Structure formats: structure tokens, C-alpha cells
Amino acid sequence: MYLLSSRVCVKCPRCYVSFCIKETQRCQSTAEPLVQTNFLKGAPHRKHPGVTNLKTVRLPEQLQEAALSILRRAEVKDLTERAHKLSNFLWSRKRAVETSQLREKAILLERKYLDEESDTHTDAIDHELEARIRKQVLSELRRTTYHRTLLRYDKELGLLYMAARLAGGYAAVTRALNEIKKRDPLFVPYSLLDFGSGLGSCTWASHTLWGDSLKEYVCVDSSGDMNMLAEQLIKGGDELDNPLIKEVYFRQFLPVSPKVQFDLVLAAFSLSELATLNERINVIYTLWRKTNQYLVLVENGTKEGHQILMEARNTILKGEEQVTHDLRKPAVFAPCTHELPCPKLINQPVVPCNFPQFYYSLPLSRSQDRQQEKFSYLIISRSNGEKALKTEGLDMGRLTAQVHRRPRHVQCQLCCSNGELRQLAVTARHHGKDMYRCARNSDWGDLLPVFHEEEHTENDENL
Fold first, then answer.
1. 273 and 170 together in one domain
2. Residue 232 CB contacts under 8 Å (≥ 6 apart), including other chains
3. What is the pLDDT of residue 266?
4. Each residue of 340-357: pLDDT tens digit?
5. Element (H, E) at 114
6. Maximum distance among all alpha carbons in the chain?
7. Is the separation of the CB atoms in 414 and 422 below 8 Å?
8. What is the average pLDDT across 237-266?
9. How many other CB atoms are found less than 10 A from the CB of residue 317?
10. Which of 156, 232, 283, 433 has its CA 20 to 30 A from that of 294?
């Protein structure tokens, strides 16, 4: 059975395909066939320009050997089990509740309890009643408010983090940076700033893609122990005088001068470590001021991670007056195809905009597992004000869910340049063979051309 909507339930596969085609015609235009010379540029369909996904990512061999060497020497007790618990904890972690939110919640609770007491107390509220209500409010706030645990990354927690998150974090950052590499081949970064650098995953991922051009890596992390572990990894796990990556500088604070800019600025799984909204906003402004070309933010693919990135997106796009020394406008490079409100935050129920990336974990035992990292990311570029994401005149949509390949059609969910989230059934008959084959060779996170909406016909409305 194919459950298509609250109105239609089609059992016959042939009728199902027919319905999908009609529904596509209703929601989309008459879908001009994709012209191969305009989009493919002679490339095979499996490598069309919208493909940004990577196959299963492996850690660089030298990084993996260095990490295993450090972990074996440390002899951490119950390493695998504790690393798994840490990974689950980080995934489920939420932002701290803001003081203003607590105040609003307390006022609502106070009114609620006063209304309940009004039936039995008609006179003026006495001090005893006020104290009792205050106690009830505080008790309810303690019971229902999320209590965020502050993590202090000492050496032991850093080792657990290495076992739990080094491979997954590297895979997510590599996938995000690969989009810049694929779509902007002329980008040749010279300098990199990694905020909240941790174990240096961003440094390794950037070195993998642009090692020939990058001449300066500045890693900023407030934990001195994490900086030491990251430096050990760069030195191959030993105190070598010849590091595997040259010109890497570790700092505990961001560079002071607002005029110092870096070609590539990254913050992976770092904004979520900041306790308050004000802290995050201040850091975002600082990182944007230090961005010469691309700012890349990566977080867990949870509702919290996605919302943190949308905070950052709105902060930069709406707060241009905060940056006066660089007049180039910010433009969303990826994954959004527009600068309108995120449709996934508007629709109910709220589903995070996230993307999967397969990777091989650290082989702490004899086997090396293939795992999946779900992450959210945001790339903002310095531009001349270009807003729409286009390739050869075609509007591009982002595949924001699993692609379902069915007989004679492909079911896709696309985030379009007009800010809408659309379901599209791609067929060779209505979209052309090239478009159909591109859709069949695309996956979650890739880009596809989309078509503009037209007026509904009477027949379409009667579907």
C-alpha cells in the first residue's frame, strides 16, 4: 500500500505512478526537460554538478595511527563503553535555558497558582500565600527545566572524546568542506581559523582538501589539555620535531585585532558548547569579522544543532551593521538555497535539516565499523550580493531527505529557492531522461534543478 496523503490511498503501482505524475504537475510547472549541455556539461549522470556527497570517509592513515598510539599508551579503563556513553550524551545535549525564558515561565506559573487559589481566598493576598506560591513556582521550575552540565575537557575527557568523536567529526567537516571544493574550484585558501578546534579535526579535513595551498592554521580552544592532544596528533602521536602538518598554531583565545582575517573560518561542534545566546551571538559576530571568504559551521544533526545554526544564519544576515570594515555582503552558500525562513522550522512537526555521512570509526578493537554521522551545517560566503543558487540559469534545490527510487519515477523532497519544501516525483516522460537519471543518481544532501510553480488548472484542482 502506498499512503500518499490524507485524501488518497492507492494500491495499484501503476495508478500510484500516474497519481504522482498528476500531483507533480499540480505542484510544479510543466517541467521542461533538462538540457544535458546546460547542466551535465558532458559529465556522466552519476557525477552531475549537483552531487556533493562523499563515499564512506576514512581518517587519514597518519591521523588514525597517531590516535591509536595515544589511546593505547594512555590505557584508559573501559574506553569503548565510556566513549559510547559520551557520544550519546553529546548527541542528546541541549542549550541552557535563557534567563528571560525562565522569567516568563515563572510569571505564567505564578498566575496559574494565583487563579487556583482565588476560589478559596477572596481577600487580599497575604504574605503566607505569596511564600507558598513562590515555593510552588520554584519547585516546578526545578522539576521541568533542563539542567545543562558544564563539560571541562581535561586530558581524560579529551581521550574519551578522541575515541568517541574523532572519526565522526572529521567525516562531517570533510563532507561540508567538500561542497566548497566541488562548487568553487577557484577557491584556494591560504589561511585557516578553527574556533573550538578540539582535537584538530577541521585542520586535518582542510589539509586533506587544500594541503598544497594552506600555509597557516590557527587553532583556538579554551582547553589547554585538548590543545596538547591535538598537537600530539599532528606530531604523529610522538614528540617529533617534524610535525605531519606544518605551520599549525594553538591558542586559547581568538586573535584580538578585528582586521586580521582568514580565508577559511570553521567552528565544528563548538557553538553548542557556549552556554547562552549572548555568548553565541558575540562569537558569531567575531568569526564573521575574521572571515575573508568562507565561514563554515557544523553541529550535531539534532533539533538543537539545527536551531543553533539558524540562530547564526539570522545573526549574520540581519546584523550587517555590526561589521563595518568589510563591506561585502554575506550570502548563504550551503545548504540553504535561499535566505528565507527555514521551512523545516515552520512546518509541524519540526524536523531538523540534517545530512548523513558514512565513515569508518577508529578500530579500537580488531574490526573497523562502518557508521553514519548525522550532522547539520551552514556555509556563508563573502559575495557581491548574489542570492539565488543557480547553475547555468537553473534554480537548484537541496535534497533534504532520503531519495526513494521507484519503478519509472524517483520521489524527492527538495528545499527550493523560493523557501518552500516540495515533494517531487521525477519521471523520464515529464522531466526528460537526463533529469530522471540525475535524480536516480542523487542522494540526500545533493542538489537538483527545480521548476517554477504555475497557476493550477481546473482539472488539477479536482484531483
1. yes
2. 66, 70, 238, 239
3. 97
4. 999 998 887 888 999 999
5. helix 99-118
6. 84
7. yes
8. 86
9. 14
10. 232
